[in-house]
Amino acid sequence: MAAKKRISATRAKVISVTDLTRALDGAIQRAVGARVRDPTIIGRMIREAEAANAQALAKQVAKDVSAQVKGLAGRPVTISGPGGILIGIILKPTAIGRGSIG
Fold this sequence. Notes:
By secondary structure, the chain is α+β, with helices and mostly antiparallel strands. About 30% of the residues lie in helices and about 20% in strands. It has a domain at about 40-100. The protein is built from 2 helices and 3 strands; from the N terminus they run H-E-H-E-E. The protein is extended, with a radius of gyration of 18 Å.
């Protein structure tokens, strides 16, 4: 009888926004020596060719995310950088951890 090959599946690691924020805050605090109280920016980089109207896209993203995550309100943000434009939302520190995205 031939041996069956075992297929192993790798699960994606899941991290909460709160845990990620705490890790970033701790790293910044160790690097700068000051406690972080600034808002968190969450978004995705897209190629500039796809971002003819980046601010309008950011407003739509903020609206869609706020509709999907109860109690979460974020301000739209766009940041130009190497490789594209970040389109996302700015979260107030008090908003982090109130809901879950997933």
